[in-house]
Write a structure and sequence with these properties.
By secondary structure, the protein is of the alpha+beta class. It has 23 helices and 31 strands. A five-stranded antiparallel sheet has the order 5-8-2-1-13. Strands 6-7-3-10-11 form a five-stranded antiparallel sheet. A hairpin with a 4-residue loop joins strand 24 and strand 25. The chain starts with a helix and ends with a helix.
Length: 730
């Protein structure tokens, strides 16, 4: 008898192993559009009738439930009778034989009795179903833990099954349901469900990346890292902000969906090592499904080339590791994108004021091709030199485990104030208030106003400085590559970006046909120069406005005093040309006085963070975003900064319009804003998570909890409408 029972159980297990082996390939297919198990089969329970538990499933179109896979298990103090199930649709299953299935809806009832003193009805309800059209998949068995009130004289309100975060089948119950089969076989294999890649961005800095399909998540606190055969070395991971999640196994935990990048510092003396052997142990789950056992993968990392050369994975049994993805695009593609982005940058509003200076010098050189070439070469040298310095600064900070984004220098109030003074000085020079000569040497704003190589070179430097608040099309991917690439490749990308910015003036200087199209210089040039001074004043006003948002009214007052003192210095500088040493000493004294409010500006404290943003948007925080996503609410995340000109252009044309507000209301989307005007580690972590070199960054999260969709840095209303409409439908 025992042998017969064992044989019967073995046959059932063999049948289910066959079914699951059939399901594995289809799980590896594209599963976009498949519903979570609790949405495909919505379960509600009713205890209004004493002694009878009534259950109702609402089954989504193209899904079905197996009648024979329904199981009911009594909780403490509860005894269950035989469940009353209706007849299902009969058909022959290639793996399970003759079965009955339910479509659309099903009602069942389960009689029960309670032990003395019982106050709640606790029942476990297990069921399983499949998706019957492409992709044809079968879900693993799912268990809902019902904890229901008992009727007290009147009918109790129907109670829904507990949410999946609290009622997912535990690892133990899943293994029991499948006999001795590993949990990972019920869904994707571990190597496909949790792809781990690793590379070395520098000898002392590693980057680990887990990539999960939709509906899978990784535990942060169930992850351990160690080096094999590396005495004296230790690892220091810097986990980004994750998603708060209530887990049935571990309680309130932090998890990661979709993809997570983990920077890991290597501390200690590498002693000439060129390769590290990293062992990572981690655990994750399928949402509304099974949890995987602890997985361990060992990856060999080449510290010289920055690639992960090999990997092995084990999850009770070894499985192959995933091949590393070093960089998202090739170097050639990054160089072409950088060249195009730099070219388009000439048309962005942040660069136009400085280009007006260059336009004047080019027009003045119209009579001489030699002068035009000299202007172009020295301007290009200033641009390329500035981009090279910027690239080396980024690489140096990256090697020291710091992060730097495009435009983040404008997060420093003192630099914003200095740039405002430079713009004012250049404007005053172009207006004729001051004419800079050799008396000021090669420093400050005088260089931009001077003719000759020094003025051309400094104009290129200034163009790069003021270009940083703008992100032109094509630049995002190129900068993301540069921020993660090896040193030489990163520098080449920055130089290509500078070459694109300088390219129009190079063409004018070296292509005579283009130079002949320019108007001939004349007396009208002086009027044009004075007119072009006003964009300088507007740029200075904009920088003061940025400063107001960073440090408030005190900072604005100090920079305005510095501007008045600077104007007085330049005015007296002109008058002192024909006077003696005393007048020139007064110029130096006024210049020193200009530095005093700038020193005080650096001491102004940061104002307290606002709890909410303007225009009805919700202030960004990882906790708020996680709560909204858990509630099934679509979210539009806007990472912006007051010094980001591209951000402000998008706000003016799309995000601050009534059409956008109506779209939010129509789709039920929450508008969430993150402010990167000042240093903000939380916003910086979000930018890093999406590999964005800076702001703007726009991400749309659908209501079904799927991965976020990153939009272009330059928005149009039609693109935003399409993204929000699709997010609301999911």
């Amino acid at each position: 008898m025992r042998s017969l029972f064992a044989g019967s159980r073995a046959a059932r297990l063999l049948a289910w192993l066959s079914l699951l082996s059939c399901a594995l390939p289809v799980f590896a297919q594209n599963t976009d559009g498949l519903l979570p198990v609790t949405s495909a089969y919505r379960l509600s329970a009713d205890t209004a009738t004493a002694g009878v538990l009534k259950l109702h499933w609402t089954i989504a179109p193209d899904y079905y439930l197996y009648r024979g896979r329904m199981k009911f298990t009594a909780g403490e103090g509860v005894t269950l009778g035989t469940a009353q199930l209706p007849d299902g649709k009969k058909h022959h299953d290639p793996y399970l034989g003759d079965v009955e299935t339910y479509h659309h809806a099903i009602d069942a009832s389960v009689p029960y009795t309670l032990a003395a003193g019982a106050t709640r009805l606790k029942v476990s309800v297990q069921y399983q179903g499949c998706h019957e059209v492409d992709p044809k998949i079968c879900y693993p068995p799912y268990t809902a833990q019902l904890d229901l009130p008992l009727p007290a004289g009147a009918a109790a309100a129907p109670a829904a099954a507990a949410p999946p975060a609290q009622t997912g089948a535990s690892l133990g119950s899943a293994l029991k349901a499948l006999g001795s089969q590993p949990a990972g076989a019920a869904a994707l294999p571990p190597g496909q469900a949790f792809r781990l890649e690793a590379l070395a961005s520098s000898p002392h800095q590693l980057l680990l990346r887990w990539t999960m399909p939709a509906g899978y998540y990784l535990y942060r606190d169930r992850t351990t890292l160690k080096l094999v055969d590396a005495a004296g070395l230790s690892l220091k991971p810097a986990w980004p902000a994750g998603t708060l999640h209530h887990d049935a196994h571990y309680g309130d935990v932090t998890v990661y969906f979709d993809q997570v990048d983990l920077p890991v510092a290597v501390e200690g003396d590498l002693a000439g090592r060129h390769r590290l052997l990293l062992q990572a142990s981690f655990q994750g789950c399928q949402q509304d499904g099974l949890c995987y056992p602890l997985m361990t993968r060992t990856i060999s990392i080449d510290l010289g080339s920055g690639t992960a050369t090999s990997g092995t994975a084990t999850a009770r049994r070894s499985s192959p590791g995933s091949a590393p993805r070093v960089l998202p695009i090739s170097l050639i593609a990054a160089l072409l994108l950088a060249l195009g982005g730099g070219l388009v940058l000439n048309l962005m509003p942040c660069v136009l004021p400085v280009l007006s200076i260059k336009a004047v010098s080019v027009l003045e050189s119209g009579e001489s091709h030699a002068r035009a070439r000299r202007h172009a070469l020295f301007y290009t040298a200033g641009v390329l030199g500035s981009f090279a310095m910027l690239g080396m600064g980024i690489l140096a900070l990256r090697a020291a485990d710091h992060a730097l984004g495009w435009g983040t220098q404008l997060q420093q109030p003192l630099l914003v104030g200095v740039l405002a003074l430079v713009m004012l000085a250049v404007g005053l020079s172009m207006s004729g208030v001051a004419q800079f000569g050799a008396g000021l040497g090669n420093a400050g704003a005088g260089l931009a106003a001077r003719s000759g190589p020094a003025g051309d070179f400094f104009t290129g430097v200034l163009a790069v400085v003021v270009a940083s608040p703008c992100t032109a099309p094509f630049m995002g991917s190129a900068l993301a590559y540069a921020f993660a690439a090896p040193m030489l490749s990163a520098l080449l990308v920055f130089l290509a970006l500078g070459l694109g910015l300088a390219l129009p003036f190079l063409l004018i200087g070296f292509v005579p046909v283009l130079a002949r199209l320019l108007p001939h210089p004349g007396r009208w040039m002086e009027t044009l120069k004075q007119v072009l001074a006003f964009p300088m004043y507007l740029t200075a006003a904009w920088l003061v406005w940025v400063l107001a948002n960073q440090r408030g009214a005190d900072a604005v007052g100090l920079v305005l005093v510095a501007m008045v003192l600077l104007a007085m210095t330049l005015w007296w500088f002109e008058r002192s040309r024909s006077h003696g040493p005393v007048s020139r000493a007064l110029v130096a004294l006024l210049a020193l006085a200009t530095l005093v409010p700038m020193y005080l500006l650096a001491q102004v404290p940061r104002p307290s963070a606002a709890a909410a943003t303007r225009d009805g948007a919700v202030a960004y925080s990882p906790q708020k975003l996680a709560a909204l996503r858990a509630a099934g609410t679509p979210v539009f995340v806007d990472m912006t900064a007051d010094w980001c000109v591209t951000c402000k252009a998008n706000e003016h044309t799309v995000l601050d319009t009534q059409a956008f507000r109506d779209l939010l209301q129509r789709t039920g989307t929450v508008y969430m804003k993150g402010d990167w005007t000042d240093v903000n580690p939380t916003v910086g972590a979000f930018l890093q998570q999406y590999h964005s070199p800076g702001v703007p960054l726009y991400v749309v999260f659908p209501g079904n909890g799927g991965p976020g969709r990153q939009l272009s840095t330059v928005l149009t209303y039609s693109r935003v409408r399409q993204a929000l409409t699709e997010a609301a439908r999911r």
